[in-house]
Each structure stands twice: as C-alpha cells, then as structure tokens.
Amino acid sequence: MDFTVGERVTRKSYQHDLLFRIAKLGASEAVLHGEDIRLIADAPFADLRRVEERDLKKRKKVVRKQEEHSFKLFRQD
C-alpha cells in the first residue's frame, strides 16, 4: 500500500481504536501523530488502514456523543 504524509489511518493491531495522521514515512514504517489525543507512535505499513471520509464522519459523531455524555455527567455534580 502506498501512504502519503497527512493521510488519516488506524492501526489493525489495536482494533482501530484511535485515529492517527501520518507525520513521516520511513522505508517500512510510518510515524503517526494522534488526531484526537496527544500521542506519537510508529507502525509498519502492514498494520495501517486508511480511514475513508464516511468512516471519519461516523467516528466524529461517536466522539461528539461521548463528549456530550461526559459534560452531562460533570454538570450533575
């Protein structure tokens, strides 16, 4: 697979739990920066999966719903 710097990806080995942006490409792996949280990781190309635009919208909707729930819990106290 050919990846480009700036592309959004997830990692198969972590069940696609976090969204990353490719920061740097090496010979056999990429350096990743967390999209939603402050995190730097590296991963082999075989472990990466591109995130399509429609999947990105679904992810953002889920994150927004989780944030709203958290804020609701804060306001209860």
Blueprint of the fold:
Layout: E1 8-11, E2 20-25, E3 29-34, E4 40-44, E5 48-50, H1 53-76
Antiparallel strand pairs: 1-2, 1-5, 2-3, 3-4
**Sheet of most strands:** 5 strands, antiparallel
- Give me the number of helical elements: 1
| N→C terminal distance | 49 Å
The stretches of 5 or more residues where confidence is low (pLDDT under 50) are none
Give an account of the 3D structure.
With 77 residues, this protein is α+β, with helices and mostly antiparallel strands. It has one domain. The chain is 31% helix and 31% strand. The protein contains 1 helix and 5 strands; from the N terminus they run βββββα. It has one helix at residues 53-76; strands at 8-11, 20-25, 29-34, 40-44, 48-50. Strands 4-3-2-1-5 form a 5-stranded antiparallel β-sheet, with no helix packed on it. The longest helix is centred in the last third of the chain and has 24 residues, at 53-76.
